[in-house]
Amino acid sequence: MPDEEDNTVGDAVDRTTDDEVNPTTDHGVTRLYGEPFDSGFAQAERLHLAADLAAAVAVYEELLTLAESIEDSPDVRFLRAHLLADLTSVHLAATDLAGAEDTNKRSRALLDDIASATMGPRGRQLWLEMLLRTLIAGADLLRRTGRLDEALACLDEAAVSMPEFDDPDGLRTSELGLNRVHLLMDRGEWGAAEDQASALLSTTPTTAVETVPRLLVALGLICSSTGRFDPAEDYFARAEDHFRAIGDTGGQRTLLAHRAYAAMHRGELDLAERLFAEASAFFEQQRWFGDLAVCEQARAFLAGRRGDAIGAEELLAASLSRFERLGASIAAADTMLLGAQHAYDRGDIDEMKRLAQGARDVYQEREIYERCAQVDLMLARTLEDNLNRTDHGDHERESIDTALSFALPAALALEAARYDFATAHARSQWLELADEAMQLVFRLAMRRQDQGLLFELAEHRCAGASLALDRTPPAAEPVEDPASVFPSAAMKSYAHHEHAEGAMTLGGVAAEAAASVGLRVAPPPKVRMSAQSGPGRVALQEYIAAAEFRYHRRIVHEDAVPFWITDDLTNRPVVQVRLADAGDLFMTWTWAGGARGFGTGQGPCAEVDQAVRELTDALPGAGDGAEGMRRAFDSGALAEHGSERRLARTLAEALWPEQLTAQIRQVADRAGRPLLRIQPSPRVAQVPWELLAVDDGTDVRLIDLADVVTTAPASLRPRTPTAPRPQGTDTDPVVLVLDPRVPGFRADSPLGSVLGPPGSDPELMSLVRNRLDAGAVVPSVASPAEAFRRTDLDRDWLSGVLRKGARRLMYVGHVSGAPVEGGQSEDGTLHLCCDAGASGLAEPLRTHRPLSAKDLLLGSLPLRADGEPGVRIWPAPPRVALIGCESGGDMRFAESFGLATAMLHNGAELVTATRWVLPTSFAFHRLAQLPKSIRPLSEAIVAVDTAHEDQDPVRSLGGWQREQLDRWRAEGRIEHSPLLWAAMTCIVV
Questions:
Q1: Which class for 7: exposed (0-12), middle (13-18), buried (19 or more C-beta within 10 A)?
Q2: Under 8 Å CB-to-CB from 775, ≥6 apart: which residues?
Q3: Which of 146, 151, 462, 899 could form a disulfide with 330 if both were Cys (CB 3.0 to 4.6 A apart)?
Q4: Whose CA is closest to 184, among 368, 331, 377?
């Protein structure tokens, strides 16, 4: 073999110099074995790239025949192993799995035969490279035939040999990493696959011209499989550029199928049909039967959606037959699952059960648990459909129970799959896919009229994700797209991946990059269905146990929290209301604090959405700037009493049950105004509950009957109840951050002054003077005017004063909310006096770096090896006021990790924040022509400050809001409009 003394195969390779580690090239032909082999290898490679696989096979087989005619020696065996390894690659490209298995085994046997042969350093490197290629190809083959654990073992064997291999450009390392990504994708472990693919892409050299486009394709498939279609197309476009640059025709044509897959899941079925048809024609012409079978499987799904039952059956039969001939057991099971749905549609229940069970048996055997969940969801849907079509009589309850036993554990596993993703955006997109499964569960619970189950479903859904501050991504076992029965296996013919009992890891910089991206979260805590500590029933406990057993996925955190705590703020009657989005809007409520009772409600989706749209139209939009504010003043429903009352009634009719209003009245008559704790769902997080007109014939509002406070998810709640901190005895200072100057922005710019020139507002001057008279204030000022528009209040200053201890923090200034569609509440920012050089996780704006909620949560952990979490850098005092635009907007996200909840996470007991963009006093002067002596925002700031000094801040702020409402009803003047004061809410844990 190369590097031996004896040259048996040609004389073009110099075997006398151990320092020469790379074969020579001449006019694009690698000089390794001599002619005709070197030219033959080059010709076959060109044919492979041109997708003329049959011609490539013919060239390799002709060369192999010639090699077998040469006198046997280690060199000749190595040559034959090389030819067989290349033949394996071509067979895999053509999805000739039987041919690939034969050539791969023969290549490995030849390499093993010469493993002990004498070889120099260069020869050893060439042998190692061929061994690695054979192992990686073997893993690919095993994956395609559904033997995923064996494929992983093959990659592990390659990894053992990798340290000995001289891989200066990282080509084989990146190829091995790509195959691990593919294995993760095949198991549906999308989050872990994305982490590793992203990290690998950042470290793969540009010289890896074949690996880079396939990494981009993998990332595109991950995104399209998890509902992120725009980034998917971006990855596909970049991959196409790379394929074109290297002349890889086959790679370019397979992108047709990938784009068709994305179009199908995006709902563009006509486009998907056209692309799949075009790809199918190419695959059939090239005899790439595995890829053709995938296209037939997808086209069968599309035919079924069109109502073409006969066409769907024919395509399914063709796809299944091809997969079975190829030995692609998992892909065949996917086709069987799709066939089961078609069998049900035509009324053949026995065939549906046979096919579904057959598919599930394959998934179970291969430990692909997310597809097991997919089968169970399909069975639950068919049971629900059958309940809708036929009268089950006395057996209806039993049928519903059976459907729930399938649906609820599967839905829990599907939801929990999101915790594998590194970013909140990816998790939010996944939840949109998973939501259909949970909607099915809520429908079944309502059908069973099971209030207890509805309570527990709401508690679990409202518990919220737990923040994960460790640097190690969790082991992943994600679950598939439930949007349809079509298996979302991300083109099963192309992918591979890894089963993680010990999760696959990348080393060094790549591992750190993968671990530090985004805000990682863990499953929610268990929710004990009693306020007391100790053992007791946990919400959905039997369903959680079933999900964790069936699908091998963690559903809840080991810690447990009580479903609520009532003695932290008050001992008066309290009602806890939770809202959950599941198509319709579901509500549960429970009384405590001297009152007893409970109930459930349901708001039809269409009515809820319409009411929320009307509210949104009335609010100043966060992205609309000055024009949005002008519209809210000129034509918004909150700017005129009559239209505001109609909106308040619309909201009440859609969102608020009359039964709960009646209970509140009864309690108020007997025990005084109760405390109403509301945890809104993301869809209704901007609703000003205080305004709801709960009586049809009068103008009675909810705040007339109760004090209202917003509650955060249970994941922010302390694991054990703690005694409330006494107010009024603490000597720690009040921290005032009042309209700080933002570097790079003038006073009249978008991030300019919100309160006007220092000293120009008597009410705010009086507020500072009162605080100075009452005790310590930071920053230290000689006069009240010095507290405003300061330039020294940056993140380091804030950290210093909070670490020393404070009893309150009041921030009045600019807040930039994160876009809801992005899913990342942690991107919300405060604008202090930090310049662009400040250390942080938010991108700079001009010469200024904002302080993000992600900073407050993660601190310097992602930035330094010895970093600290945010709770140590910015420990929050018991009471925090964040008076800025949509500072409480994190409640609109599926994961509440914005500014308000970050403060709660860091130790605050109560945070006063805003639900939407606030109008400044200047906006009232300019848009409503109010005289400058009237300053509505200043009045609101004083009211919040007063409330935070009160023993019961919720009652105090509610009293001020009632005063504003009374003036609004009596006079209808714009300065008393709910446009400002109804934005304020107190948030507690």
A1: middle
A2: 731, 733, 734
A3: 146
A4: 368
Rounded to whole angstroms, the Cα distance separating 741 from 748 reads: 11
pLDDT in tens, 61-114: 999 999 999 998 998 999 999 999 999 999 988 888 889 999 999 999 999 999
CB 207 within 8 A of CB 171: yes
* Average pLDDT score over the chain: 86
**Taking each helix axis from N to C terminus, what angle separates 329-345 and 349-365, rounded to the nearest 10 degrees?**
160
Q: Indicate the residue type of 30.
A: T
pTM of the model: 0.80
Nearest Cα to Cα of residue 112 among 140, 77, 144 = 77
Residue 567 binned pLDDT confidence (cut-offs 50, 70, 90): low
**Tell me: the pLDDT tens digits for 258-303?**
999 999 988 899 999 999 999 999 999 888 888 899 999 999 989 9
Report how far Cα 74 is from the mean position of its chain's Cα atoms.
Answer: 53
Q: What share of the chain is helix, strand, coil (3-state, %, to 5)?
A: 55, 10, 35
Give the type of residue at 651.
L
Helix boundaries (H) for 449-579: 451-462, 508-516, 541-551
Tell me which residue of 499, 410, 400, 414 sits closest to 450, measured CA to CA: 400
107 SS3 class:
helix
Nearest to 502 by CA among 466, 472, 467, 470: 472
Q: What's the Rg (C-alpha) of the chain?
A: 33
Task: Please state whether the peptide bond connecting residue 562 to the residue before it is cis, i.e. omega within 30 degrees of 0.
Answer: no
- Say how far apart CA 413 and CA 479 lie, in whole Å: 7
Which of helix, strand or coil describes residue 876? coil
The answer, yes or no, to whether residue 989 has pLDDT greater than 70, is yes
Token couple for 288:
């790439």
CA-based nearest residue to 713, from 519, 578, 598: 578
- 988 in Cβ contact with 568 (< 8 Å): yes
- Length of the chain counted residue by residue: 989
**Predicted confidence (pLDDT) per residue in 793-817, tens digit:** 999 999 999 999 999 999 999 999 8
Q: Name the residue among 282, 278, 262 with its Cα closest to residue 222.
A: 262
